[in-house]
Design a protein that fits this description.
The complex is a heterotrimer of chains A (about 160), B (about 700) and C (about 425). Helix content of chain B is about 30%, strand content about 15%. Chain B contains 24 helices and 27 strands. In chain B, a hairpin with a 2-residue loop joins strand 4 and strand 5. The longest helix of chain B has 19 residues, at about 80-95. Chain C has about 425 residues and is an alpha/beta fold. Chain C contains ten helices and 25 strands. In chain C, strands 3-2-1-7-19 form a five-stranded parallel beta sheet. Chain C has a five-stranded parallel beta sheet with strand order 9-16-10-11-12. Mean pLDDT of chain C is about 85; it is low at about 400-435. The chains are: A alpha+beta (about 160), B alpha/beta (about 700), C alpha/beta (about 425).
């Protein structure tokens, strides 16, 4: 299945993805409504977008005591049926990445649902750090970007001699 | 489910001009998505594009002409507005002469054809006074490169092996460029960012040169020194195609990395690393200069110093290097040949001859003074279209006084901007979804046609307005075309492209590289026909022949009364200058203005995040809340305030009396200021709350 | 091969799915004393609060069992397990032969030996039946006594209060949620309870319940005035239903002990869920964690191993989250510090009102938080660090953020937290699994 694959080495923490997702959820740009979160750590200059990985063995899905979390047959996305959700927040506790958030207004948990197969965050990513691709190919891509980073580093170091 | 119609056009929420698909239901725009086929953005958009729907239908949108009366704004018909404006202009022309009338075209309108119609109009009615946002943007870089290369080349970033950005932040200013940068980096390119701040793109830099504001030329010369040391100069290229190398080498000799460090604060080791990275990658070095280098007293020299590196490394027209691109082969709308009017003394032309000679731009700050002082002659009427100088020009207080002092001020805008609020007449302007115009993406050399997707009866596009006014002022012969489409057809005449072809291909049509002169055989478009590392042209006008370094005033003549250096104008993704503050969700994301401050400075001043401070320059004062940023996000002793906020308008304190001598650009990004803490319970004016 | 599963709740269902993911050929029979369909015990308090409709309590429909090719015997009690003959003795005299067995019989609420603590107005909140009876009894303006202040008891108290009853809570231990919260957190919660109009008595022994002629109940508790109530909810503890395997239990320790494969000492017989005393994440003696997530995990391991997978359970990490009296209460792992443990606390971070992290030799072992719903998120992040059993500056990891990338990289088995940890795999040949 395709998931939103993140390349933090390309991310500039512009938060276009957060705005686009929040807009999709609520028509506003409040970051708390976004299902993708970009953390920026100034000291390390690290831009870290985090979004649901739609794990093959989704702990949130397994642990939900209301059977409110399932898998979309079309996209394979792990989705919350907010009608069934009782607001117990077990899934918040379950997700190791903190990719589920709680909508206090509606009293339900919310998470990325891949926008039905055309994720908004990817469409709006300024730098191309977010890509919607087959999860299996993601590892390949990671190797490629690591490779590029090494080559960049080596290019800089090469002439120290 | 109502039928959806899709029209393809270009977005103009910023200057990137992305291809978009506009979705309509029953003639009303309901959504905007990316046009995957358009070469420029390939379907990608930023969140501003969709907000155009909110902008176009905004409840504050002005849809009918307004006239100022003693009892407030009175709505009048378009015909009445045009008649009255024409009559009053005729009066002014009668009393003070045609040159007392000026037009001011803003960034919101656009470039190319849009600005040329305004230029045509003002000359057609007898005045040489075309003013625009280019008194403060673009032109300085244009000169910096034109004076060296004969044109401003477009860097082929996606194929570069080393990208160097000077005072530019593509993610917020030209979002698409970021994708090209990512592409290059994924292929192993090194990214160098020169910026006193940790801008969004600097977060990804391999080398972030935190250059003191206004000292960029010293850094450039330090790098040039190293490039020469590394023997990275392409001597065969330079010998054949450039003049002035000997002078460059001589001047560069004294710019050791240590000296560069002393002037700029960038460590000598970093200067060397940048040079090494460029040398290793040459000729695939992609350089891009942003507005960040323009607003300084030595701006053009800094830009020229950067530009000459392309020549030294031989990157001209190389893959991944600095590539000449052609403008579209359209007919010329301007009347500079037919009605030059130079004898009338275009405002600023005497003071800034290069500005007028190379761009036919008058100087807005000179115009403001002319209004108030009647020197060099009176300026009594102004038509402003898509510009908001009352907020975005330096020295706001003076700008307001001047605009209020005019006999006639007409403002065309979508909303009641700060400038419109001062006008005698406010005319509803067409947004980019309401005009059909030609636009070229130079990087790909493609021409696109925008569409008039929606319209209102009294809301005129640029051409229609200038045509109607021109006809009423006896200049009808210069506006023979019945409408925009007819004008577009005329513009395309002789280009080999037809309007029908453009309509059929909203993704853009290539117009070819026909203009290109082969510089290898026919030389560059410079006076000498060569790359001018040293400019005899400038020397002849009394300017620096070489793009020498001049220490900025705040360091050369530091005034203890103003111990901080202020940078203004850092871009935000969601706002463009003073626009879009009335889009509610944008305010959720970025609620208000702030002054960025280093934590050490904040500690010393005793201010916390959110406290309101007063920032003062010799020009004025502004109260604004503090945002204490991380220590590596700004240099100690420096501050940054983004412009365009009426709640805390930094242009109250920027300079309209200190300029780059060549471009006439005002000092806005390295001005000396002081900061004082206010009492904690002070609130800002209006309804803004501190960030 | 015939697999028999006794039970129809979290552990049994999880085991069934894990088994079928590997073995589509063997026969499976699920036996449960409750009539079915399977419902969520966790949701019962939410039902009483009106948050969840009765029909939404059911978490598996009949076609689920069909799609997993599992035969069901609902409303059937297992009277005994003949281990030697590999046969279940069912109520009504029938028998069911098996090759392998999973005992997932869960637990039952215990009742303290208080005279008079019985009758039509005295209930636990454990089964669907309990919930339906209480739904009739919890009327606005009525007076309720909640006996006990464990998780379930307090949720019942919250539901009753939300329904407009006058609620009194009497707890024997020093403070509420004695096994879930430490004292400062418990006192915080008690203050919220009082602020919501409940009466709370801790360190109080209930001595007797007297029945009036009209059915009213009068409660006698040490040190309190006589308390007249209309309904009593008993939530004083649970006992594992381990009676079916007397040969598998150990003297003095409740529940059926299992190893890391969830196997009992009897060959081919596994146990999971509330009935099982199993491995614990932090190591040390086995424990019963009567928690839904633990039951799901144990069931998964048991089911996989019943199909021959040979996986080991990393151990239960107790985790609990609920919202009551206007606060979210979340706890993870071991939160009562022992000697030699390091403790970090924060009380000053709105909206987190109370946060405590316990570490041992630099390895975070548990945390408890009260406050806004995001506390669950915080503890979720800590979960991977606790599971990873690696040294980490826990409080910094939770709060300061800048350590997060490095810590996540260390806390998650396959570095590359931004890439699927266990990537979604290609289509496998699986029996249709619908949830």
């Amino acid at each position: 299945m395709r998931i939103v694959v993140v390349d933090p080495d390309a991310c500039v923490a512009c938060r276009d993805c957060e705005y686009a997702c929040a807009f999709q959820q609520s028509g506003d740009f409040a970051r708390r409504d976004s299902c993708i979160r970009v953390n920026f750590y100034a000291a390390e200059r690290a831009c870290v977008p985090l979004t649901c990985l739609h794990c093959a063995e989704a702990w949130c899905l397994e642990v939900c005591p209301a059977a409110a979390i399932g898998r979309d047959p079309g996209t394979g996305a792990v989705t919350i049926d907010t009608r069934r959700c009782a607001g117990c927040k077990m899934c918040l506790l379950a997700c190791p990445y903190g990719n589920i958030h709680f909508d206090e207004q509606a009293g339900v948990s919310r998470k990325c649902d891949l926008c039905g197969g055309d994720p908004a965050c990817v469409r709006f990513c300024t730098s191309g750090a977010l890509v919607f691709m087959e999860a299996d190919e993601a590892a390949e891509r990671r190797r490629a970007t690591l490779d590029a980073r090494l080559r960049r580093a080596l290019r800089l170091d090469k002439d120290e001699e | 489910m109502p039928e959806r119609e899709i029209q393809r056009t270009l977005c103009r929420m910023c200057d990137d001009r992305c291809g978009i698909e506009v979705h309509l239901e029953d003639g009303r725009i309901v959504d905007i998505t990316g046009n995957k086929e358009h070469l420029w953005n390939r379907g990608r958009l930023c969140v501003k594009a969709r907000a155009a729907v909110d902008m176009v239908y905004h409840p504050e949108r002005i849809l009918a002409p307004l006239k100022r009366t003693a009892d407030g704004w009175q709505q009048i018909s378009l015909a009445q507005a045009l008649d009255e404006i024409a009559a009053r202009l005729a009066e002014v022309r009668e009393r003070h002469g045609a040159r007392s009338i000026s037009v001011w075209k803003g960034e919101a309108i656009g470039f190319g054809q849009q600005e040329n119609i305004a230029r045509r109009f003002v000359h057609a009615i007898g005045s040489p006074n075309y003013l625009s946002n280019d008194s403060m943007c673009y032109a300085a870089r244009y000169f910096g490169f034109k004076l060296v290369d004969g044109a401003w080349p477009v860097p082929d970033l996606a194929n570069s092996r080393c990208i160097v950005l000077w005072g530019a932040n593509p993610p917020y200013a030209h979002p698409n460029m970021t994708q090209y940068i990512t592409e290059a980096r994924r292929a192993g390119a090194t990214l160098v960012v020169v910026d006193p701040r940790l801008s969004a793109i600097a977060r990804r830099a391999d080398l972030h040169a935190r250059c003191l504001p206004g000292t960029d030329a010293a850094l450039a010369w330090g790098i040039i020194h190293e490039l020469i040391e590394l023997d990275a100069v392409d001597h065969s290229f330079v010998e054949r195609f450039a003049v002035g190398y000997a002078q460059v080498a001589e001047y560069a000799r004294s710019f050791t990395p240590q000296r560069a460090e002393a002037e700029t604060g960038v460590p000598a080791a970093t200067v060397r690393e940048i040079a090494r990275a460029m040398a290793n990658a040459a000729p695939r070095v992609g350089t891009y200069v942003g507005n960040g280098l323009e607003h300084h007293e030595n701006g053009v020299n800094s830009i020229r110093a950067v530009a000459i590196m392309d020549g030294l490394l031989g990157t001209i027209d190389q893959t991944g290097g600095a590539c000449f691109k052609c403008p579209p082969p359209l007919q010329d709308l301007t009347l500079y040949d037919e009605l030059p009017l130079t004898e009338l003394g275009p405002l600023g032309a005497a003071r800034f001859p290069v500005l007028y000679e190379l761009r036919q731009e008058c100087h807005t700050m000179t115009a403001i003074d002319a209004i108030l002082e009647d020197k060099p002659y009176p300026l009594r009427a102004m038509i402003v279209t898509g510009a908001n100088p009352a907020l975005t020009n330096p020295n706001t207080a003076k700008v307001r006084r001047a605009l209020e002092a005019l006999d006639l001020l007409v403002v065309r805008d979508l909303f009641m901007s700060e400038t419109a609020a001062l006008a005698d007449y406010v005319l509803p302007a067409a947004s980019f979804l309401e005009r059909t115009e030609l636009h070229a993406h130079a990087k790909h050399e493609i021409l696109s046609l925008t569409r008039r997707v929606v319209s209102w009866p009294d809301v005129q596009g640029e051409y229609d307005f200038w045509r109607d006014l021109g006809r009423r002022l006896g200049a009808g012969e210069y506006f023979p075309w019945p409408d925009e489409s007819a004008l577009n057809r005329w513009l395309l005449d002789g280009s080999g492209l037809t309007l029908e072809e453009l309509e059929a291909h909203p993704e853009g049509v290539p117009y070819g590289h026909a203009c290109a002169v082969d510089w290898r055989t026919d030389g560059f478009s410079t006076p000498s026909g060569k790359l001018e590392l040293a400019s005899a042209y400038l020397k002849g006008l009394g300017y620096d022949e070489l793009p020498v370094y001049r220490r900025p005033a705040y360091r050369e003549a530091a005034d203890p009364a103003y111990p901080f250096v202020l940078v203004t104008g850092a871009r935000k993704l969601l706002y463009l200058h003073s626009r879009f503050r009335n889009i509610a969700r944008f305010r959720t994301a970025i609620p208000g203005p702030e002054v960025e401050m280093h934590p050490d400075d904040a500690a010393e001043l005793g201010v916390r995040d959110g406290d309101v401070v007063t920032v003062t320059s010799p020009v004025g004062s502004v109260d604004i809340p503090v945002a204490v940023v991380a220590p590596n996000e700004i240099l100690p002793g420096s501050l940054q305030i983004t412009h365009g906020w009426k709640e805390a308008n930094v242009n109250l304190i920027t300079h309209d009396d200190r300029f780059d001598p060549v471009s006439g650009f005002p000092l806005m990004k390295s001005l000396a200021v002081r900061v004082e803490r206010r009492a904690r319970d002070v609130d800002l004016a209006d309804d803004a709350s501190p960030a | 091969m015939h697999l028999a599963i006794i039970g129809n709740s979290a552990a049994a269902l999880s085991a069934l799915e894990a088994f079928r993911a590997r073995d589509c050929a063997s026969r499976v029979t699920l036996v449960s004393s409750e009539p079915g369909p399977a419902y969520s015990r966790v949701l019962l308090p939410y039902f009483l609060r009106g948050r969840v409709a009765r029909d939404d309590l059911f978490i598996r429909l009949s076609r689920y069992y069909e799609s997993l090719d599992a035969r069901t015997l609902f409303g059937t009690r297992v009277e005994a397990v003949d281990v030697r003959r590999r046969r279940l003795e069912l109520s009504g005299g029938d028998g069911l032969d098996f090759d392998r067995l999973l005992v997932a019989t869960g637990s039952s609420p215990s009742k303290p030996p208080i005279p008079g603590l019985e009758g039509p107005r005295v209930h636990h909140l454990w089964t669907l039946e309990d919930a339906l009876r209480l739904d009739e009894l919890l009327l606005p303006g009525a007076r309720a006594l909640v006996l006990g202040a464990g998780f379930v008891a307090l949720q019942a108290a919250w539901a009753a209060r939300r329904r407009g009853l006058e609620v009194t809570v009497i707890e024997l231990a020093e403070h509420v949620l004695p096994r879930v919260l430490d004292e400062p957190a418990a006192r915080l919660l008690e203050r919220e309870m009082v602020a919501h109009g409940l009466t709370v008595h801790t360190a109080t022994r209930t001595e007797a319940v007297e029945h009036g002629r009209d059915g009213a109940l009068r409660v006698v508790a040490a040190g309190l005035d006589l308390l007249d109530v209309d309904v009593i909810i008993v939530g004083t503890g649970i006992r594992p239903n381990a009676g079916l395997l007397p040969q598998a239990v150990e003297a003095g320790a409740p529940g059926i002990p299992v190893d890391e494969t969830m196997s009992t000492v009897i060959e081919g017989v596994y146990a999971a869920g509330d009935v099982a005393r199993g491995p614990v994440c932090a190591g040390g003696p086995r424990e019963i964690h009567a928690l839904w997530p633990t039951a799901v995990e144990q069931g998964r391991v048991a089911g996989a191993n019943l199909a021959g997978a040979g996986v080991a359970y990393a151990g239960s990490l107790s985790m609990n989250v609920t919202e009551m009296f206007g606060v979210t209460v979340a706890s993870l792992g071991r939160i009562i510090e022992g000697s030699g443990d390091q403790v970090e606390e924060r009380h000053d971070l709105p909206p987190v009102r109370y946060l405590k992290v316990v570490s041992r030799e630099g390895v975070p072992v548990g945390a408890v938080a009260l406050g806004a719903p995001d506390v669950a998120l915080l503890l979720g992040r800590l979960r991977s660090l606790v599971r990873g059993r690696r040294p980490a500056p826990a409080m910094a990891a939770l709060l300061e953020g800048s350590d997060l990338p490095r810590l996540l990289a260390r806390g998650v088995p396959e570095a590359g937290y931004l890439w699927p940890a266990r990537g979604p795999s290609r289509e496998e040949k699986r029996c249709a699994l619908s949830s």
